């Protein structure tokens, strides 16, 4: 018996379409409905038969659904909730896959009735690619799905949604929404911002040409271009909706960078060595935790 | 006929041992001599038969060599040059593989006679791993080797060293030393510094535990840990010897980051989108230039 009778996914990009694939592959839904405001996405998903039905509009997409998952950029949540709010089934679970969590309640709660269970979620998974063609069913394997239920949320609903994420291969963590936003600010949001920034800085130099940056990128720069190639709309919305935590972590980052800069200026080799030595271990711990593969240079030379 | 009668490699870590493998594989040397001040490295290289002979000391290592390549951290160049300077063969080529180039002349020139050709070089290649076991012969394939000959250097010597790097699979670029240091400051040195810094910042947080940073690193952070796992001695020496260019690029980076920070604080979504959109294209250009593989997420999901 499928875990949910009827699941609706709103937003069929990389994450939404990967989730559709994983739901199908693991028989998690009696019926799987999809909808994207971009007709091209709907067409791709329909052609690939990733869902049972592409809905005609948002309202019909959520009709009778037991689980509705928002997989659009978070900036669209408020307007979507306004449209679907009155059409959600009583007792339905409303969730999402967004990278920020505390702001979700403010965006959605005003539009839904108290008999709908809002349990935000964030699968910590993705690639730099976008759109339904880039999705794949194993995207969530061995990754963490963080659920951020509000205080007093129904335990049965939380447990069922946890089972859902486990069924697509993820480990589940329950977290307080504001704490989630702090953790992700440092593990994801600030790294993306820094990557976008260094790529931007490199592009704008006068003395070093863009062609030189590209040719000699194997020295380290190219690693940063991967996450700087991520979906710009999604990331704009992340930064607008996790302002406080991002600014705090960014403040710490800049403070630390200034200290490193000073060590370079004053040629304090011991201080530099000390910092460079300590950071080395953390990668091994990430590998040991199953969150990274144990191959040099991201496996770039594996075929040679 | 081998390109050089006798080649000596001083320093048998990741780069030196990879070069030894590539020289052997492509029959570039009549005889290949190696030496490392670390006896463990010498033993590994000897056991793997990566060179014809491990020398007993620096002086005997360079005796009669037509090409001597320094593959140690650049901080050791000066003291090595002092020891080997008087023992280099007249007409020999002295080169290196260091990541900084302008400072090489000051470190080496005082110790060598005018009949030795100093042609510094920098293969823009590497992994986050260290030591002779981590090396492999294809490390330099399709990467750029940058030669930075001094003004008035012998053209035949430059051409022969270019052939050497081509023989191990690299493309060769001739560059003015100071320009090299600026290009690499932005494509390699500052990216490494930023990576070391964000990993350090994450480690030092109070509210977010190290275990959380490790668990949720797939959101982007783990990409940064790769280059922050690189050889700390090598990188300390890079920053101490490319101070001027690194500080300049770092100044630009910080200025740009402050602008991004301000856009977040004032919720200027258009400015954020604009920056995030522009940086996206540069990765495709790096892929098109053959300096990155065209797979999502560094191919992390390829086996699934």
Explain what you see.
The structure is a homodimer of 304-residue chains. With 304 residues, chain A is of the alpha/beta class. Chain A folds into two domains: 172 residues, Rossmann fold (3-Layer(aba) Sandwich), CATH 3.40.50.720; 89 residues, 6-phosphogluconate dehydrogenase C-terminal like domain (6-phosphogluconate dehydrogenase C-terminal fold). The first copy, chain A, is 48% helix and 12% strand. The first copy, chain A, is built from twelve helices and nine strands. Chain A has a six-stranded parallel beta sheet. In chain A, strands 7-8-9 form a three-stranded mixed beta sheet, with helices on one face. In chain A, strand 4, helix 4 and strand 5 form a beta-alpha-beta unit. The mean pLDDT of chain A is 96. Chains A and B meet through helix 7, helix 8, helix 9, helix 10 and helix 11 of A and helix 7, helix 8, helix 9, helix 10 and helix 11 of B.
How do the strands and helices of this protein lay out in sequence?
The structure is a homodimer of 304-residue chains.
Chain A: E1 4-10, H1 14-25, E2 29-35, H2 39-47, E3 53-54, H3 58-62, E4 67-70, H4 77-84, E5 93-96, H5 102-108, E6 117-118, E7 121-123, E8 144-147, H6 155-167, E9 171-174, H7 177-203, H8 210-215, H9 221-227, H10 232-241, H11 243-265, H12 269-288
Parallel strand pairs in A: 1-2, 1-4, 2-3, 4-5, 5-6, 8-9
Antiparallel strand pairs in A: 7-8
Helix pairs in contact in A: 4-5, 7-9, 7-11
């Amino acid at each position: 018996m499928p875990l949910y009778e009827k699941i609706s996914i709103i937003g069929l990009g990389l994450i939404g379409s990967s989730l559709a694939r994983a739901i199908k592959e693991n028989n998690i839904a009696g019926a799987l409905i999809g909808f994207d405001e971009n007709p091209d996405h709907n067409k791709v998903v329909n052609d690939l038969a990733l869902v049972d039905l592409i809905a005609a509009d948002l309202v019909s997409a959520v009709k009778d659904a037991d689980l509705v998952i928002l997989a659009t950029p978070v900036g669209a949540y408020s307007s979507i909730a306004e449209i679907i709010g009155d059409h959600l089934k009583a007792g339905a679970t409303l969730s999402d896959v967004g990278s920020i969590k505390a702001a979700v309640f403010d965006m959605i709660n005003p539009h839904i009735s108290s008999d709908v269970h809002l349990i935000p979620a964030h699968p910590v998974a993705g690639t730099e690619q976008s759109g339904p063609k880039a999705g794949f069913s194993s995207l969530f394997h061995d990754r963490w799905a963080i659920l951020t239920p509000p205080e007093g949320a129904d335990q049965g609903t939380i447990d069922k949604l946890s089972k859902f994420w486990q069924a697509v291969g993820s480990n589940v963590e329950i977290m307080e929404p504001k704490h989630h936003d702090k953790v992700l600010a440092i593990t994801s949001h600030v790294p993306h911002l820094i990557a976008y920034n260094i790529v931007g800085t490199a592009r704008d130099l006068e003395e070093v040409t863009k062609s030189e940056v590209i040719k000699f990128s194997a020295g380290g720069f190219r690693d940063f271009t991967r996450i700087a190639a991520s979906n710009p709309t999604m990331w704009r919305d992340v930064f607008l909706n996790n302002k406080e935590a991002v600014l705090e972590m960014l403040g710490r980052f800049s403070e630390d960078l200034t200290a490193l800069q000073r060590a370079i200026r004053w040629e304090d080799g011991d201080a530099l060595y000390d910092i460079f030595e300590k950071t080395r271990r953390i990668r091994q711990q990430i590998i040991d935790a199953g969150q990274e593969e144990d191959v040099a240079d991201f496996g770039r030379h594996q075929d040679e």
